[in-house]
Amino acid sequence: MIYQAEQIYLLHTEHTDYMFRVLPTGHLEHLYYGASLGSEEQLTPARIAEDADAFAEKRAFEPGNEVVYDQDHKTMILEDMRFEISSYGKGDIREPFLEIIHHDGSRTCDFLFDHAEICNGSITPLATMPCAYAEDDSASELIVTLKEAGTGLTLELRYVVFPKEDVITRSSRLINESDVPVRLLRLMSLQLDLEYKGYVMTTFNGAWAREMYRNDTTIIAGKTVNSSYTGSSSSRANPFVMLSRQDTTEGAGECWGFNLVYSGNHAETAEVNAYDKTRFLSGINPQGFSCLLEPGEAFEAPEAVMTYTNRGFRQLSHNMHHFVREHIVRGTWKNKVRPVLLNSWEAAYFKIDEGKLLKLAKAGADVGIELFVMDDGWFGKRNSDNVSLGDWTPDPEKLPGGLAQICRKINDLGMDFGIWVEPEMVSEDSDLYRAHPDWAMTVPGRHHSEGRNQMILDLANPEVVEYMTGQMESVFASAPIRYVKWDMNRYMSDVYSPYLPAERQGETAHRYILGLYRMMKALTEKFPDILFEGCAAGGNRFDLGILSYFPQIWASDDSDAYHRVKIQEGYSYGYPQSTYTAHVSASPNHQTLRVTPLETRFNVAAFGVLGYELNLTDCKKADLEEVKEQIAEYKRHREMMQFGDFYRGRSHKTHTWTVVAPDRKKAAGMIVQGLVEPNVQFQAYRAVGLIPEARYHFYNRPRKQDIRNFGDLINTASPIHVKQDSALQRVLARFVTMPGEKEDRFVSGAALMNSGVKLAQAFSATGYNEEVRYFQDFSSRMYYMDADEAH
Ligand code: DGJ
């Protein structure tokens, strides 16, 4: 709901309020963003005005050595005021929201209020980019129009309120209504001027195979910038960031979460000024950006998302999760459970052909796989990553009957069929590049740099977008393809569009993203039932722009279960688990060579969208039986695993995650440890989010342990001596197993949450039986909790 009381605007959600007012000069003064100021009935115009008056800074005389706005407003020191937007030239010397070079070369801007329009119950989408949407009339929109004092420039600020999720979004649009061109150097999406300093800025940074590491920086002075200049939202600096008080924890304290519905270069800046105020800005990264606006042209900035809570990071994550699930992800797969897939990449890499894939698929069908995905290597002459990107015809040597034949054969095994594509790229060794060298993003006359031996297609060129959309349409229509993994394996270099004139080259990276969105829109609309999965060498483009078209994204090329805990936990702050995919892969792991138990590989992957990516045809029988049980177990719980509420953990000495069904009557909890320590046998699992009054059945699925895991300790119990790695040990292992511990008890929700269940003692040197937990390096356990309806 949006209220107006005279010159004050109040944006109201279930638990938060956001307030600003129009000053007599026409500037927009930010007044408040925090916990709720009252219920809808209490928010009368008089009360809003009283609160606004309390929030407004009181100024009687100007401080020394300051630029004042003008002689009639000598207490208006723009450097020290809190604004909805800021620009350069009238005394605000902080990072600006907007920066322009006028026709005469000057840079001063002064945007002043003109009019505003409130629309409670409906919202208008952005014209050039994806944005959040509402399926009902719960969202409201406010458009504030400002005019630049010295020119005919118009700035529209768009605010959208999503009350249930406690989310407010912002975007902006600059329209050149003057009769001369201007050069836009930046137009950010969101500005939030907070009082005080000392906030903690949490960013999620990384690189290939180690995305989303959480980093906390306390902002005391100067600027802290989280930004990507890679052409994609990037694994280096995800656009999701948080600000919090220094004492905020998972369960308590103030925090603000921000994200951007955008997949390109972005920047999130927190700056402390000379008066201990903190300005936060987010939007398209101004570095390398400029846009020429001819008379009549407009530029639209992407939508930024913000949420506030005083109930800690857990609540912040839930606000973001609900918002992403409800207002970003759309289409057929929005609320539909995702199939368990088997992907060919780590099983076979480029060495694929129909026979080999069908053998793999058959092994998958036997254990319950629902979707078989043929990854890279199926087209052109693609036997390595040097060639053929751009030539999207099946390799007849590998697929003699094309996509249609392999798809039919996979379908005959009772599974759906999916494929991998990388439509934004071109190999130098490809028919496409030979025919259209000017379609690649390179600077004419200069040596170009490559990433993974490939170049980027110039999606700033509409002809290229149209051509590649057509190519993809033919591929997707050539067989009943049910799933597409859309990859993008390098970041930008030689950023230059041969299609654009010199004076518009600063628009290239942004126009590329707009071209990409047009392509994604056309293809997802034409093939609404295909499950699309985004990918950029793993998580190099994990953002709300991609999620506006594709409901899930491959979170990382790192499939090491233990390391994945850190990555998936990073994502969990801003993204729901239905958006990140996770696969059970081989051990030793292909990225780290770490050996992890199959149980841990499953448990960690089950907290994302589960898939498998290993050569099942090489697996031991016992492992295949375990995989079959895992898949059956996952299918029983997957609705909750994919769409339930995710909680980061609370247990001592282990890493813990819990997922709780929306009615809180079912939950799954996982503990995972790093390196085992001797004599630390006593661990507990502590739940979050349950119904305290309910009685839960708490249980696990006991697994038998291979005697080889106990090395020569087995001789303490064996009547005959068993040498390690001997034929005798192998034979014995086929017939003799060690029991796994069983957890099976009833316990109240209150007990589970207040103290938790003390688990079976972990092995620690002195003995082993069915009451002992075999819990070695990188071990984990999954526990289920079902409310006992009889109570
Ligand atoms: C990078 C992806 O992240 C991998 O999963 C795989 O699809 C390869 N590309 C294929 O080239």
Brief description of this entry?
By secondary structure, the chain is of the alpha+beta class. It is 20% helix and 28% strand.
From the structure above, extract its key features:
791 residues, alpha+beta, ten-stranded antiparallel sheet, eight-stranded parallel β-barrel, 40 strands, 20% helix, binds (2R,3S,4R,5S)-2-(hydroxymethyl)piperidine-3,4,5-triol
Overview of this protein structure:
With 791 residues, the chain is of the alpha+beta class. It has 14 helices and 40 strands. α7 runs parallel beside α8 and α10 runs parallel beside α11. The chain is globular and about 100 Å long. The chain binds (2R,3S,4R,5S)-2-(hydroxymethyl)piperidine-3,4,5-triol (DGJ). (2R,3S,4R,5S)-2-(hydroxymethyl)piperidine-3,4,5-triol binds at residues 345, 375-376, 420, 487, 489, 535, 537-538, 554, 557.
Distinct bound molecules:
(2R,3S,4R,5S)-2-(hydroxymethyl)piperidine-3,4,5-triol
Tell me the strand percentage band: 25-35%
> How many strands appear in the DSSP assignment?
40
Average pLDDT, to the nearest integer?
97
Helix content: 10-25%
Tally the helices. 14
Rg estimate, integer Å = 28 Å
Main β-sheet: number of strands, strand sense, barrel status? Answer: 10 strands, antiparallel
- Described by the principal axes of the CA atoms, the overall outline is globular
In terms of per-residue confidence, which ranges show pLDDT below 50 for 5 or more consecutive residues? none
